[in-house]
């Protein structure tokens, strides 16, 4: 087989890297190591394309290696998901046994006209109600999966306060865009806020590094893929609420990535934010059950 020399007298490790690049994109090549260094041989018809690909590889990797992305290391993320699970389970038990002789579902479900009637609390109380055991377990599992990293990124209190407020806003907007017969319950809007927050925060942190565009956008692309995979199935699924929750989370994550958050170790702000998040739900349920 006739071949031509693409490069010669280059360091053997560099020649090996180039050879791997060409093999990865389907260009056959042969690597030889001599006393003068590495040599790379290709077919004559592949020479021009191989040269272009090596040039592209060198341009994308020019300069010093990118510094590793520095992530905050906030503590207590596990407490956030424990309280999340406990809250959903407690409200489910209360609704099931009609504690206080109240119909928790009818008083807390998200309905059209909540703004006109002044029933603002439904945008938040609906986040803690579920239709059945499968619905509850799915939101518990995905809520833990998506909210845990969000708590590590921005702190447990800031994360959950953001999730509660953004999910409430997304629920209210969801109602404004639906016909009069529409009603919603479930924590899935909050779950997708957490996914959007984590995705956007990771995306913004990576965007400031000397990486390729594919590496920079990978977290956001992964978030959109998870939204598509987990947020559009089932005949009772409110896809619009999921999408609005994800978009609210993306906006929140982008803003938090640019904000001056309290550094790890200063837990007072985090606990205060967590208390406010729980208070929003507590006040909402008090208004709903009065």
Summarize the structure.
The protein is mainly alpha-helical and 290 residues long.
Tell me about this structure.
With 290 residues, the protein is mainly alpha-helical. The protein has 2 domains: 4-60, Hypothetical protein rpa1041 (Alpha-Beta Plaits); 77-289, Rhomboid-like (Rhomboid-like fold). The protein has helices at 12-24, 47-60, 77-96, 104-108, 122-125, 133-154, 156-176, 188-207, 213-230, 239-258, 267-289, and strands at residues 4-10, 29-34, 37-42, 110-111, 183-184. The protein has a 3-stranded antiparallel beta sheet with strand order 1-3-2, with helices on one face. The chain has a two-stranded antiparallel ribbon with strand order 4-5. Strand 2 and strand 3 (37-42) form a beta hairpin. Helix 8 (188-207) runs antiparallel to helix 9 and helix 8 (188-207) packs parallel to helix 10 (239-258). The termini are far apart. The mean pLDDT is 85.
Calculate the mean pLDDT score and round it: 85
Class derived from helix and strand content: mainly alpha
Report strand order across the widest sheet.
1-3-2
> What is the N-to-C succession of helices and strands?
EHEEHHHEHHHEHHHH
Number of domains: 2
Largest sheet: 3 strands, antiparallel
CATH class of the largest domain: Mainly Alpha
The count of β-strands is: 5
Share in β-strands: 5-15%
Give helix % range. 55-70%
Name a few traits of the molecule.
290 residues, mainly alpha, Rhomboid-like fold, two-stranded antiparallel ribbon, 5 strands, 8% strand
């Amino acid at each position: 087989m006739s071949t031509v020399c693409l490069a010669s007298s280059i360091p053997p490790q560099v020649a090996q890297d180039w050879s791997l690049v060409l093999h990865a994109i389907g260009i056959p090549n042969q690597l030889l190591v001599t006393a003068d260094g590495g040599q790379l041989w290709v077919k004559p018809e592949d020479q021009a394309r191989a040269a272009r690909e090596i040039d592209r590889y060198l341009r994308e990797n020019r300069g010093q290696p990118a510094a590793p992305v520095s992530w905050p290391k906030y503590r207590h993320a596990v407490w956030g998901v424990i309280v999340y699970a406990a809250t959903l389970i407690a409200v489910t038990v209360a609704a099931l046994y009609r504690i206080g002789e109240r119909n928790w579902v009818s008083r807390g479900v998200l309905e059209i006209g909540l703004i006109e009637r002044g029933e603002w609390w439904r945008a938040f109380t609906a986040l803690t109600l579920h239709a059945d055991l499968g619905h509850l377990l799915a939101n518990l599992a995905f809520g833990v999966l998506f909210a845990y990293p969000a708590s590590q990124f921005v702190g447990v209190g800031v994360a959950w306060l953001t999730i509660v407020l953004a999910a409430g806003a997304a629920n209210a907007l969801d109602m404004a865009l639906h016909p009069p017969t529409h009603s919603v319950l479930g924590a899935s809007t909050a779950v997708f806020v957490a996914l959007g927050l984590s995705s956007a925060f990771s995306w913004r942190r990576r965007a400031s590094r000397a990486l390729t565009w594919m590496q920079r956008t990978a977290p956001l692309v992964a978030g959109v893929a998870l939204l598509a995979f987990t947020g559009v199935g089932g005949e009772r699924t409110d896809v619009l609420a999921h999408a609005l929750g994800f978009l609210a989370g993306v906006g929140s994550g982008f803003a938090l990535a640019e904000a001056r958050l309290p550094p790890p170790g200063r837990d007072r702000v985090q606990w205060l934010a967590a208390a406010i998040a729980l208070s929003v739900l507590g006040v909402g349920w008090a208004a709903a059950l009065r």
